[in-house]
Amino acid sequence: MSTAERHELERRLELALHGSERGRTIIARSADGRRAYAAVRAAHPEREVFRVGCTAKLFVAALVERTLDAHGIGYDVPVRHVLGGSSGAALGDTSLRHLLEHTHGLDDAAAPETAFRGDGSIDVERLLERVSGRRIAAPGALYSYSHVGALIAAALVETLEQRPFEALLRDELLAPLGVELRRCRTPETFAICPASGGALGLTIDGLLTFVESHRPQVDHAMMPLPGWHPLERGVRLGWKCYAGSWVGHQSAWPGASLLVCSRPRDRAALVVASEDHHAAVVAARALGDEMPELFVPRLPKQRAGAPGLDPAPYLGRYASAGDAVGIEADADGLVLAGDRGRVRLLPAADEIFFLERSTRARAFVQFIVRRRGRFLALWDGQRVLPRAGSPPLG
């Protein structure tokens, strides 16, 4: 990109941060092989290393694609046929597509984030034991974001290749691109996790190189989300889908927030990384007017109140193994009760309710799957919480 384009990107970043420059924040863009960077507190932004966080799931998707091609296996083959053993009891007809697209239906809150064997491979038997008998939905019924799909998919790749995930990532995926795997020591772990990243780090240039080189197979249909989301539209084989044909992933770990995405049709790619700010917010402020298809949210029409709202279809407890909320009613409408207290729900279109005070866990809820006069699940933009006592959805 030209010097003028780079200066404009730097100007946009400075405005987006409003003078708050405590930690590193970097925007890196490429189009047709030309790259441009804007950064604060980073003299050489392309060399800066960040933890990849949940964007590690993109590496799993890329390794799965490579491995399936090599072994002549399709995405819709039941995973139990590859893992063998007692995996059928926990997985049933769950396929690799279900794992990558978060439609496996497994309730993974009780699962260990990553359990390793002595040789560094994933202890998939322990993982499956923890999720066995825990389901929120039948395989393929609906999307609900979690870590367990990426973990089991990575274990399947290890089984087929007979090598640990870290070695495959380093030697088969990154090294051919000229990208070096980095390890960032963290207070939590020094291990590399296929789902949350763990200590896995890459340079900004390494992330940009990867996202330029590995794009999802566009001949596969997108799995839509079960409800509303301000930016995301669905997922395709591990890649989240945004408007305007953008695909990628984002992560928001403390001290390392990332947005990594590409648009295959015009060879465009974008990486935003920040230590102190949410990367997607930085990107929206800096690039929203230039790339509105990616960053301008679709907002449901809010209602001034809820006159005549019948609370009966909504009331109840919605829960998974790791989270639970209660929906109650008073004279002024609906109230969400959780472990962080009670908060009023403000009604909008399509059974969406915004929290009067957003929490770290959620900013809105949407009631979905209505049967026999009541809703059977609650969606918060990331996960689905089934109504307590209901059978698995689907």
Quick synopsis:
The protein is of the alpha+beta class. It has helices spanning 3-17, 56-71, 80-83, 87-91, 96-100, 124-131, 148-161, 165-174, 204-213, 279-287, 292-295; strands at residues 25-31, 34-40, 49-51, 182-183, 192-193, 197-198, 200-203, 223-224, 232-236, 239-242, 247-253, 256-263, 268-274, 316-319, 324-330, 333-338, 341-347, 352-355, 364-371, 374-379, 384-386. Strands 2-1-13-12-11-10-9-8 form an eight-stranded antiparallel beta sheet, sandwiched between helices.
Number of domains: 2
Uncertain residue segments? none
- By DSSP (H or I, 4+ residues per run), the number of helices equals 11
Which word captures the global form? globular
Question: What percentage of residues falls in helices of 4 or more residues?
Answer: 25-40%
Question: What distance separates the N and C termini?
Answer: 49 Å
Oligomer: single chain
Detailed description of the structure:
With 394 residues, the chain is of the alpha+beta class. It has 2 domains: 1-298, 3-Layer(aba) Sandwich (Beta-lactamase); 316-386. It contains 11 helices and 21 strands. Strands 2-1-13-12-11-10-9-8 form an 8-stranded antiparallel beta sheet, sandwiched between helices. A hairpin with a 2-residue loop joins strand 19 and strand 20 (374-379). 44% of the residues are buried. The model has no long low-confidence stretch (mean pLDDT 90).
